[in-house]
Specification:
With 249 residues, the chain is an alpha+beta fold. The protein is 45% helix and 18% strand. The chain has one domain: Histidine kinase-like ATPase, C-terminal domain (Heat Shock Protein 90, 2-Layer Sandwich), CATH 3.30.565.10.
Length: 249
Amino acid sequence: MTNEIELEALDLAALLCSRVCHDIISPVGAINNGLEVLDEETSEEMKSFAFDLIRKSARQASAKLQFARLAFGAAGSAGAEIDIGDAEKVARGYMEGEKAAFEWTAPRALMPKNQVKLILNLVLMAVAAVPRGGLIKVTIEGDPTKPDVTFHCSGPSARIPAAFEKLIPGALVDVNIDAHAVQPYYAGLLARCSGMKVAAVLEGADVIITVRSAPAAEPAVEPVAAVAETDVAAAEPATVDGATASTEA
């Protein structure tokens, strides 16, 4: 028996907002620094550097916001489907600001909203698996309603993200939830909502994260009611010395 504790809705919303702010604050801060340089410097070389910094940081902030809109936002009404191509576009945009190289192989198809959100959230988990950079390969195969998704994460010091095994299933016992730890917890919620199972293993020096359809629970088999011996006896005709006794007068 596992002890599972659900985060309160307000706490989950606050932690996800903190995660988005954490991703956005760096490029927005860089834009502000670039503007300060433009205000204070007269050197054309420094101004050119500031403009480049502002352009790069603005692109990065925009990419992270577009990613967050799809990965954390409503992205359509309940039960909506999302084009996998749109997920690929925002994932590639997000990864341009990360250390790891990124590859994505998937068919162009519509997929249930929560499964797309799950895949995008696991992109963030894959980034955490290679903190010093490397290569992340995403492969999506099979039926779009129940896809097989594999994240192959390779790089120096590749590791399974902290508390992954506890937070994906939703076990919050002895785990401190912050803006980073909320990521696997939220991914686990999306997986359970989508009927998917997420696992991570270390294969040699690489981390492999997989998403598969969760096995359907077997229906409970009701035990066949035992027939009382008295009922059996009543159903069978009585015998006397091997002969059937007559019930007639």
